[in-house]
């Protein structure tokens, strides 16, 4: 099972490393302890929305961008580890894309960025 806090921590760490920033620098700018930020990045602690906003501010990245990336990663993990079986859901409750998920391919019009990640 994929945990949201782990994906969030991975995205935050990747952004920080991509900027060649240290944990100490980001923790100081975000006004959070170095140890706590480290635990958030390792997916060991759940960060509040206020803390996430502060970390994103320190990284100079909009919170919406971080959440979008986490959402994309979560969708990819769901597709890889827990495929939706249309037969398990009554037809009246099925999402329009459920049938295509069973076949393992999504139409290009649905989540194109996820299709790109799955193809890679």
From TrEMBL:
Gene3D superfamilies: lambda repressor-like DNA-binding domains. Residues 12-66 form the HTH cro/C1-type domain. Signal peptide: none annotated. It holds the Pfam family HTH_31. This is Helix-turn-helix domain-containing protein. InterPro entries: Cro/C1-type_HTH, Lambda_DNA-bd_dom_sf. It comes from Streptosporangium jomthongense.
């Amino acid at each position: 099972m994929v945990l949201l806090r782990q994906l969030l921590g991975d995205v935050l760490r990747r952004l920080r490393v991509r900027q060649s920033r240290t944990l100490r620098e980001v923790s100081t700018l975000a006004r959070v302890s170095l140890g706590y930020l480290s635990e958030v990045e390792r997916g060991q602690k759940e960060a509040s929305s206020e803390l996430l906003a502060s970390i994103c501010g320190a990284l100079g990245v909009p919170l919406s961008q971080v959440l979008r990336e986490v959402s994309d990663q979560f969708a990819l993990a769901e597709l890889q580890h827990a495929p939706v079986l249309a037969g398990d859901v009554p037809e009246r409750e099925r999402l329009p894309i459920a049938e295509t998920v069973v076949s393992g391919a999504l139409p290009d019009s649905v989540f194109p960025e996820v299709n790109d990640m799955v193809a890679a």
